[in-house]
Amino acid sequence: MKGKSLLLIMMAGAALCACATRTSRAIVKEEPTLKSVLGDKFLIGVAMNTFQSSGRDTNGVNIVKKHFNAIVAENCMKCQTIHPQEDRYNFRQADEFVKFGEDNGLTVTGHCLIWHSQLAPWFCVDKDGNNVSPEVLK
């Protein structure tokens, strides 16, 4: 008897659930992007690091693509990265950054060539490791 009562209650519950059709449609309002709000008035840019320009930071990449139309390198175009030793150059990260901008239709702005806090160590010393004079740096 208990089994029949339980079965009857379950069937009644299922029937009630089947009758109650409730349709809800979520209204999603698309927020405007920074670059769309500004239109053609001027470029809106952002500094990018190598995790973003290499595609490893996918959340950052998505934000850049959605909201910005210009990019500048955070560190990959600084002297310390591009010219780490007097007789050595490394443009790999800078090239990757520029390619990201070109591939995504972004205006690419370069970095200043000499940045006081991120010079390669060899830049300000002579062959013996002594600091060079201001005249040498000119």
Low-confidence stretches: none
Strand runs, count: 3
Main beta-sheet annotation? 3 strands, parallel
Q: What value does the average pLDDT take?
A: 85
Q: Can you list the strand order of the major beta sheet? A: 1-2-3
Q: List the helices and strands in order.
A: HHEHHEHHEH
CATH structural fold name: TIM Barrel
Number of helical segments with 4 or more residues? 7
CATH 2nd-level architecture: Alpha-Beta Barrel
Structural class: mainly alpha
Helix content: 40-55%
What percentage of amino acids are in beta strands?
5-15%
CATH class: Alpha Beta
**Span of the ends, CA to CA:** 101 Å
CATH superfamily: Glycosidases
Number of domains: 1
Assign an overall shape.
Answer: elongated
Radius of gyration: 30 Å
Description of the structure:
The structure is a single chain. The longest helix is centred in the N-terminal third of the chain and has 18 residues. The model has no long low-confidence stretch (mean pLDDT 85). The protein is mainly alpha-helical and 138 residues long. It starts with a helix and ends with a helix. It is built from seven helices and three strands. Strands 1-2-3 form a three-stranded parallel sheet. It has one domain: Glycosidases (TIM Barrel), CATH 3.20.20.
Brief account:
The protein is mostly helical and 138 residues long.
List the defining traits of the structure above.
3-stranded parallel beta sheet; TIM Barrel; mainly alpha; 3 strands; 138 residues
Chart the SSEs and their pairings:
Elements: H1 2-19, H2 34-38, E1 45-48, H3 50-53, H4 58-67, E2 70-73, H5 79-82, H6 92-103, E3 107-109, H7 134-137
Parallel strand pairs: 1-2, 2-3
